[in-house]
# Entry
Amino acid sequence: MTDRQLSGAARPRRRPTKQGTVLSEALIVETALRLIRQHGSAALTVRRLGAALGADPSALYRYFRNTDDLLLAVADALIGQAFVGWAPRGDWRADLRELGLRMHAAYLEHPQAAMLATYRVTGRPHEAFAIETILGVLRGGGFPDPEAVRMYHIFVDTSLAYAALDAASTALPPEARDAERQVWQRTYASLPSTTHPHIAATTRLLQAEMRRSAYTRTLDLFLDAAAARLAALRPVEQPG
# Structure
């Protein structure tokens, strides 16, 4: 897509395409996600999307101003996927933990798109819902507003950072992932204790640990720290 702008007179098309499909923003985003998964960021072109949808490429401008507008819609859709079927249980720690795991999993379902989307602020409905929901969990858990905002910032940025990191690893070709595992199993395992005593002493532990994401454990450490912070902020009851 170019940076051509959507005119104020343009309206979404309701007539079927040549393939008999009625275009919609949701269908275009779903198709973009599929193409990004198959071809990476190169899929975000008018020609490729139009061909996949069986539509004239110019019809896409009725829904999105340009490529970046479409990318923001894709990013917002990934946020929305994390909240499908979720309902708060009234325990701020359990609710945040579940949301964090859901966010991480939603991005890893679309690793190529995650690498394009995790750092964007969409300003769209799913993101607004996510911000409102997470702040509501924190404020409902007793965090004063300044702390609720700080904890929101740490929670979201940590979750998105791990999502981007793990998505990039997941998107690697299988041979590249295998080569990285071999580095831990061969290169580091062969370092002598005379020059690298700490690596030599923990090499088996490193091989087991570095093959999996640290996100879940990092999330639990964050929740431990948040709980300790909340306890420290509560007034100490004076003996009667």
